[in-house]
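debug: dumping io for the single-chain case to check the tokenizer round-trip. Nothing else runs in this session.
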Amino acid sequence: MLPVGLSSYSFNVTMGYGRAGASATSFVPWTVDDLIDQAADWGLASVELPLRPYVDQPEAVARSRRRLAERGLRCTTADAGIARTEAVTAAIPLAAALGATVLRITLSDILCGDRRRLNGGWRAYLEDMADQLRAARSVAQEHGVTIAVENHQDVDSREMVWLCEYVGPDVCAVCLDIANPLAVAEDIEEFTRRVGPHIRNVHLKDYRIYPSPQGYRLVRCALGQGALDWPRLFTLLDDVAPACTKHIELGAVQARHVLFLEDEFWPDYLPRPLLSLLPVLRLRETKGRPAGEDWQTPHERGESPEDRREYELAEMEESVRYLRTILPNGASA
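debug: decoded output
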């Protein structure tokens, strides 16, 4: 068995999510049970289940718990909402009912590290989210569920550590999207080391980097086909967070244009030493794709739902194949 799992958010079209899946009418989208079966068929260890299909559906909860047990899989859960107290306290019992001890949440819908639309209000916003999560402490403790906050292209590593310590590390942890430090112009390894003691779950994602005059575009790809050094990163994770779960979450239907070379990108960030940007700049130079290379995916080119579905599945299959070459037990999965 390969010691990683599968996140539903790798399959925006295949599972009929949002605008990406809105036109997927020529095939039946996957259900959560299809996701469970696919993870088991690929020889994976777990799944990260979305909670929306289970709201007010106790029979669906019971069915998925049976299916997980039958297929020998563990699960974590992901709530697509923002970390408001009411939403989190409603999601925690549902996560527990599915047998999960980790609930992944996000702090905002900011992408590409672009905090400018908050008009200088990021710190106040972050403190409000911290208070909202702190108000959910007793519910998380009651159900034995850890709230794992994802670095969803909005929060940097120092802020994440502060958040966990403020809310309480017994109930608040990190869901590390291992590629997303690049969206806040932070070195992936430095980010991972800093938040390491708080990591409970990891999203495995790779990006191709396309330099632009303003910074770079981050474009989804299969694991092993982008800029990340996976053997080195797995070694690092084994060191700083040996007990964390890991789920492939390719996500990012649209390219992320990170404008970190523009002055306007920085006012809402804490000051950083200039040297901390050097690894990011080196990665941009050494792993950046050639100028003029097409960076658009089938999603961005508006290809048919069938083609985009095949693209998602092919990326995931390639990711699983790649992990089998570098992880323990991979060859027998």
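debug: round-trip ok. The mean pLDDT is 94.
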